[in-house]
Structures are given as C-alpha cells and as structure tokens.
Amino acid sequence: MSSFVMPTSSRFNGYASPAAVSTVGLRKSYGDKTVLDGIDLLIPAGSVFALLGPNGAGKTTVVKILSTLITADGGQIQVAGHDPAVDPQAVRGAIGVTGQFSAVDGLITGEENMLLMADLHHLSKREGRRVAAELLERFDLVEAAKKPASTYSGGMKRRLDIAMTLVGSPRIIFLDEPTTGLDPRSRHNMWQIIRELVSDGVTVFLTTQYLEEADELADRIAVLNDGRIAAQGTAEELKRLIPGGHVRLRFTDPAAYRSAASALRETTRDDEALSLQIPSDGSQRELRSLLDWLDSAGIEADELTVHTPDLDDVFFALTGSNQPNRNQEAVR
C-alpha cells in the first residue's frame, strides 16, 4: 500500500515557504448534496489567498472546516501544521476568524468588546488592557472606544471585528466576505489593513465575491464552482486561461504598418488607425518574441499595448454553463 505525505511547503515568490494551510481531497456533503467534491489547496505562510465563487459554491463551508467549526467528510487537512480533526484546539490557538456578519456586540463599547475578547483568550487584566489599547490605536478606533459599538459605521464595525480577531495574535486569519456591505472608501481601508497584516507575517485566507478585491490583494486565487476548484493560480495566470487576449501595435508610418501587416499572420487590421491586433496571452515570452521580430525586421511600432481578459471574464467563463475543464490549473 502506498502512503501519502501531506505537503508542508511550497514554492512562492521564488523561494520555499512553509504551507500555512493545505488540503488534499477535501470533501463535504449534506445528505444527498455534495458541497465540496475533492478540494486541493496549498497556501504559503505570509501570503493572501482568495477563494472566489458564486453563492452556494461552498466557500463558507471551506472556511468552517478549516477553522474547526464543522468537520469534513473526507480528505487530509493541515492548518498551521495541525490536523483539525486530531487537534482542533491547536488549530484554534493559531487562527482568527472574521465572518460575513460581525461578531461585535453593539450593546457594549468598542473597548469593552476588546477586553471581552482578551478575557476569552485568558489574558491578564493588565495585558488585556495593553493589547486592547494597542489594537484600538492601530485600527483608528481610539476616539470611538468609549462609545457603544451600535453607533459605529459599517467600516468601523469591520475594523473592530478584525481588531478583536487579532487579540490572540493569530498566525492565520480567515476573512469570510470581509467587505460585504461596505462603501468603496471603507473597502479600500480594509484592503490596506489586510496588506499590513500580511507585512507582519500573517497569512490571510479571503473569501470574496468582489473580483477587484481578489485582483488587488491575493497572491493566489482559486475559483470554486459546484464544489470543485475550476482553476487556480495568480491573477495574471488565471486571466491567461481565457481567450481574447491580444497585443495591439499602432504605427504612424504607413510603410511600417504595411510591412508589419503583410508579415504578421493572424492579425486584425485597422487601416484607418494604422493598428494591428495580434492574438496573445500577454506572457513575457510572447512579448519578447514579437519585439525581437520587429527589431530583426527593422520595423518600429510607435505604440504597443497588451490587452488581457480581466477577472470578471475569468469568473464568468469558469462558473458559467459553458465551462472549461474543471481540473484545469493555471500553473502545471
């Protein structure tokens, strides 16, 4: 019988990084409905991982399993080096969770919410007050600290929610739809908070329906659909999965335009604008090849622009009725 060894590290940004979270064949069903049908994830420590998917895709179920709120039906899991099924307390000691709905108690002040969380983490009164004060200052909540949390704006409640999550100094934070319902300014403020967390070495597991959010924040993205991973990779790798990318060359010299148009195959011509559209995945290799050809042919383009599909295109292509291979990976 062969044995399986759970991966404990991965190659990330050019160097080996320990895995903060890893799953192999993660499965979960409710009755006859399969919610997760074999999920494989490998999330390096100190990175932002975004899980995208339509409503009902299983995103929150993944978070609940990894944060020990529910158990999986099958598969192998490690969170912060621990198996949630074997040592859930060790996992809980290493993580923080902020859900779609705030855990803030509106009947007490922001400071009291923080001190309550400190008590739950068994901090001494002195240490609890120190940690609470530091986090309230870090999240710009000092002026509102003595006010009932019910008077806070949506953005303030989200900041307080994350501040409460950080009381236990978690190494991994699960943010389940953290900016749902926030206005654009509050959403951007939350993005900055997430970046600062990662700069401190925290791993962030983010679920979101905001594609711009994943594009802005995530080192790696997985698209979950019908309980399976449709694709995963960096934002740029995912965009290259979808056809429609191209390079546009624009010329001011009609002779150079005609030379390029006659030599380059599979181009779309715009004789009035003196521009050529060439199918391309936007990769560095393809761009270098095109530039080398222009140099060798002595043809000078006045403008080169790269157009690639955005995450909206990726999302709709992977979660629509006409899907590519569900097991397709952006990086092989």
TrEMBL record:
InterPro entries found in the cross-reference section: AAA+_ATPase (IPR003593), ABC_transporter-like_ATP-bd (IPR003439), ABC_transporter-like_CS (IPR017871), ABC_transporter_ATP-binding (IPR050763), DrrA (IPR005894), P-loop_NTPase (IPR027417)
Statement: the UniProt record of this protein carries the keyword Cell membrane: yes
Transmembrane portions of the chain: none
Predominant subcellular localization, coarse grouping: membrane
SUPFAM superfamilies given in the database record: P-loop containing nucleoside triphosphate hydrolases
This enzyme's EC code(s): 7.6.2.2
GO cellular component: plasma membrane
Cellular compartment(s): Cell membrane
Domain ABC transporter: 21-251
Pfam families the record matches: ABC_tran
Class in the EC hierarchy, top level: translocase
Ranges in coiled-coil conformation: none
Protein's UniProt keywords contain Cell membrane: yes
Gene Ontology biological-process entries: daunorubicin transport; doxorubicin transport; response to antibiotic
Record membrane topology: Peripheral membrane protein
GO molecular function: ABC-type xenobiotic transporter activity; ATP binding; ATP hydrolysis activity
PROSITE patterns, A to Z: ABC_TRANSPORTER_1 (PS00211), ABC_TRANSPORTER_2 (PS50893)
Keywords per UniProt: Antibiotic resistance, ATP-binding, Cell membrane, Membrane, Nucleotide-binding, Translocase, Transport
Family: Belongs to the ABC transporter superfamily. Drug exporter-1 (DrugE1) (TC 3.A.1.105) family.
Classification via PANTHER family: ABC TRANSPORTER ATP-BINDING PROTEIN (PTHR42711), DOXORUBICIN RESISTANCE ATP-BINDING PROTEIN DRRA (PTHR42711:SF19)
Protein name: ABC-type xenobiotic transporter
